Structure to design on (636 residues):
C-alpha cells in the first residue's frame, strides 16, 4: 500500500505538470513517431460496405500502442529516482517497449514473461535481449500473462524501494489503471482532433480489441462524454464462448478480485481463476481493466467477442486488402468490424484502433493456418 | 469469550505463541489434518490454515507449490470446512484461516464467514483485502465472532500501522520481510528495529511471519513479537519427507525444535 500511495502522490504531483507533459510530448514525437495517422482503409471499407478508418498505432516505434504508456511511466520512474524497472508481458509488445525505453534512458530492465509466451513470441524475446533487458521465464500456473503479472508483482513487493513496476495495461491496483489510461489517452485525443479536422465532426463509432484493455480505453477516454459516439470493445472468444476456452472476461466473467483489481474475472465455482485461451498472447488474460467493467455496467461501451478463427481470417484479409499486417490482438477488432458492419449506417464513419503490427505473429499464424484452413 | 481472546489473556507472562501454517489439502486431503494434530501435540498455540488459491500473490515458491497440490487434490471450500469441522471435534486451539479474497467472494462473503464459524474457525487473515475494502467483511466477521487479523509490513507508515491495529481484532500479523513468503533471507538489525517500532505503536499483541524458517529466526522474532508464524519451512519439511507418514514425524520434530527455543 505504501508503494501505491507513493506512486499516486508522485503521479499526481509530477505527471500533470506542463513541464512533464512537454518532456513526454517531445519523446512521443521524436522517439515514437507520434502523431500516428488516421488512415482511410479504402479497400477494407469497400469490402465491408462502411467507411472504416484505422488509427495507426502499429506505426509507433516498437510496433504497438504500448510505448505511449511505457514512456510516461519511465519518465515518472526517473523523477522518482528508481533505477531498476520491471515489467510483465504477454505478446511481448509491452516488454519490448519497456526494454527500448530502458535502453534509451540507461535503466536496468527485467521483463517477466510466461514460458509458454516465450515460445509463442520468439522474435520479441530476441529483440528484448538485444535491447539489454533480462527476460525471466515464468514457469508457474498457466505460464502466460497472468502468471507473469503475478511474478512481477512479487518482485515489486520484494524490491519496492529501488524498483519501478511498469504495468502494461489498465489493470492492477489503483493508481495503475488510471495512470495507464491517462498515458494511453493520447490515442483518443489525436483521433478526436484528426476527425474534427478531417470531417468537421466526430466519428460515429470506435472499435478496439480488449485484453486488459489499454488500447481501447486510450481510444475511448476522450469520447466517453460524447454520447453520440458508439463504442465497441472486442474480446477474444478463443475456441468459442461455449467452449470454456476463451478470454472473454466481460462477456462471460463475473466480478472478482485478481492482482489487486476488483473487476470482471474468469473463475470457477470455488473462486479459482480459470486459465484463459486466445490465439493472441496479448488478449490471453483472465481479468480486465476495472474501468471497462464500469463502462459495461453503465452501458456506455458494448463488449463483444470474436473467435480465434475469425481473428485469423481478418488478419489475412487486412493484410491482402490494405498492405498492413495487423497484430493478432488487433485482428479481433477488425474481425468484428467485418462481421458487424451492418450494425452501422451507410454514411457512418468508424474508427478501428489498429493497435499493433503483426510481424511478431507470423509463426503462430503459420501454424494456425494448417489447423484452420 | 472467543478461543483467541481466551488464549491471549490466559498466556503466562512472557510466553510466546507458536503458530504453524498448513495449506489445507496438502500433501493430501487426509494427511494435512493429521499434521494439524501433530502440531497441536508439539506445542502449537494457534493453527493457521491456508486456503489454497490459483494465484497466491503474496506467496513464494513453497506455498505456491502446496496451493497447487491442494487444488489438484480437489480441495474446495466446502471440503476445507468439512475438514475443519472434523479437526474442531478433536482440538480446542484457535484456527485462523489465511487466504485470498476471491474464493470468499465466489462462495459469498457473509455465507462463508457464517459457515466457517459454524465449522469451528476462529478468525481470518486475507492478505489481498486492504482495510479500505474490508467494511462488509469486518461487519460480517464481527457478527460471527470471528477475529479479523490484518497485516503490517516494513514499508507501512506509522499512521497505517495505527489504522491496522485499530481494524484488527485480538492480534496483528507483522510481515517481517519486504516481499513474499518463504524467501529464506537472514534477518538483521533492520528487522529488529522494525519490530521494536511495532511494539511501540501497536496496542495489540502481534505475531511475526513470512520467512521465519527455523529456530534461530523464531527466537530472534520472539524478542519483540508475541509469537511467530512458520509456513513455507513446514511445506519444505513435508515435501522432503520420504513418505506421508514420515511427514508427520518430521513436522513434529521440527516444531519441537522451534517450541524449545521460544519462551
Amino acid at each position: 500500500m505504501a508503494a501505491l500511495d507513493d506512486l499516486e502522490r508522485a503521479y499526481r504531483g509530477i505527471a500533470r505538470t506542463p513541464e512533464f507533459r512537454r518532456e513526454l510530448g517531445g519523446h512521443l514525437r521524436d522517439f515514437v513517431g507520434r502523431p500516428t495517422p488516421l488512415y482511410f482503409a479504402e479497400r477494407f471499407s469497400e469490402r465491408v460496405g462502411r467507411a472504416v478508418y484505422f488509427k495507426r498505432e502499429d506505426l509507433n516505434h516498437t510496433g504497438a500502442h504500448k510505448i505511449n504508456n511505457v514512456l510516461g511511466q519511465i519518465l515518472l520512474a526517473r523523477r522518482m529516482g528508481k533505477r531498476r524497472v520491471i515489467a510483465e508481458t504477454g505478446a511481448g509488445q509491452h516488454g519490448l517497449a519497456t526494454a527500448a525505453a530502458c535502453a534509451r534512458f540507461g535503466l536496468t530492465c527485467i521483463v517477466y514473461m510466461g514460458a509458454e509466451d516465450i515460445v509463442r513470441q520468439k522474435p520479441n524475446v530476441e529483440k528484448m535481449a538485444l535491447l539489454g533487458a533480462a527476460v525471466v521465464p515464468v514457469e508457474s500456473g498457466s505460464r502466460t500473462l497472468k502468471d507473469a503479472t503475478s511474478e512481477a508483482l512479487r518482485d515489486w513487493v520484494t524490491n519496492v524501494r529501488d524498483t519501478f513496476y511498469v504495468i502494461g495495461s489498465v489493470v492492477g491496483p489503483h493508481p495503475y489503471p488510471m495512470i495507464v489510461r491517462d498515458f494511453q489517452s493520447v490515442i483518443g485525443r489525436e483521433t478526436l482532433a484528426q476527425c474534427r479536422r478531417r470531417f468537421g465532426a466526430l466519428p460515429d463509432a470506435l472499435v478496439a480489441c480488449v485484453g486488459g484493455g489499454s488500447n481501447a480505453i486510450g481510444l475511448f477516454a476522450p469520447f466517453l462524454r460524447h454520447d453520440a459516439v458508439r463504442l465497441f470493445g472486442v474480446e477474444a472468444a478463443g475456441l468459442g464462448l461455449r467452449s470454456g476456452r476463451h478470454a472473454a472476461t466481460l462477456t462471460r466473467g463475473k466480478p472478482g478480485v485478481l492482482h489487486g483489481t476488483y473487476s470482471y474475472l474468469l473463475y470457477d465455482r470455488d473462486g479459482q481463476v480459470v486459465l484463459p485461451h486466445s490465439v493472441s498472447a496479448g488478449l490471453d488474460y483472465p481479468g480486465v481493466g476495472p474501468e471497462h467493467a464500469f463502462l459495461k455496467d453503465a452501458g456506455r461501451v458494448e463488449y463483444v467477442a470474436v473467435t480465434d478463427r475469425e481473428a485469423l481470417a481478418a488478419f489475412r484479409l487486412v493484410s491482402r486488402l490494405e498492405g498492413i499486417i495487423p497484430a493478432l490482438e488487433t485482428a479481433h477488432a477488425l474481425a468484428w468490424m467485418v462481421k458487424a458492419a451492418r450494425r452501422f449506417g451507410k454514411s457512418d464513419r468508424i474508427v478501428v484502433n489498429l493497435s499493433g503490427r503483426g510481424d511478431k505473429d507470423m509463426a503462430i499464424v503459420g501454424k494456425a493456418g494448417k489447423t484452420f484452413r | 469469550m472467543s478461543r483467541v481472546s481466551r488464549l491471549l489473556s490466559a498466556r503466562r507472562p512472557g510466553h510466546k505463541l507458536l503458530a504453524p501454517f498448513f495449506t489445507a489439502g496438502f500433501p493430501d486431503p487426509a494427511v494435512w489434518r493429521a499434521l494439524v494434530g501433530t502440531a497441536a501435540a508439539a506445542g502449537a498455540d494457534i493453527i493457521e490454515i491456508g486456503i489454497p488459491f490459483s494465484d497466491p500473490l503474496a506467496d513464494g515458491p513453497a506455498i505456491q507449490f502446496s496451493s497447487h497440490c491442494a487444488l489438484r487434490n480437489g480441495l474446495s471450500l466446502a471440503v476445507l470446512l468439512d475438514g475443519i469441522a472434523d479437526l474442531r471435534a478433536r482440538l480446542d486451539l484457535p484456527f485462523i484461516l489465511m487466504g485470498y479474497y476471491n474464493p470468499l467472494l465466489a462462495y459469498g462473503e457473509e455465507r462463508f464467514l457464517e459457515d466457517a464459524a459454524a465449522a469451528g474457525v476462529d478468525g481470518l487473515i486475507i492478505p489481498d483485502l486492504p482495510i479500505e475494502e474490508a467494511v462488509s467483511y469486518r461487519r460480517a466477521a464481527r457478527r460471527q465472532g470471528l477475529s479479523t487479523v490484518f497485516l503490517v509490513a516494513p514499508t507501512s507508515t506509522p499512521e497505517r500501522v495505527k489504522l491496522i491495529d485499530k481494524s484488527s481484532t485480538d492480534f496483528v500479523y507483522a510481515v517481517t520481510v519486504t516481499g513474499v513468503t518463504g524467501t529464506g533471507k537472514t534477518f538483521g538489525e533492520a528487522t529488529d528495529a522494525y519490530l521494536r517500532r511495532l511494539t511501540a505503536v501497536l496496542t495489540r499483541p502481534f505475531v511475526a511471519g513470512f520467512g521465519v524458517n527455523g529456530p534461530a529466526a523464531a527466537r530472534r522474532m520472539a524478542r519483540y513479537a508475541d509469537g511467530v508464524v512458520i509456513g513455507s519451512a513446514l511445506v519444505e519439511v513435508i515435501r522432503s519427507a520420504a513418505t506421508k507418514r514420515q511427514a508427520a514425524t518430521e513436522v513434529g520434530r521440527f516444531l519441537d525444535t522451534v517450541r524449545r527455543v521460544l519462551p
About this structure: The mean pLDDT of chain A is 95. The longest strand of chain A covers residues 230-238.
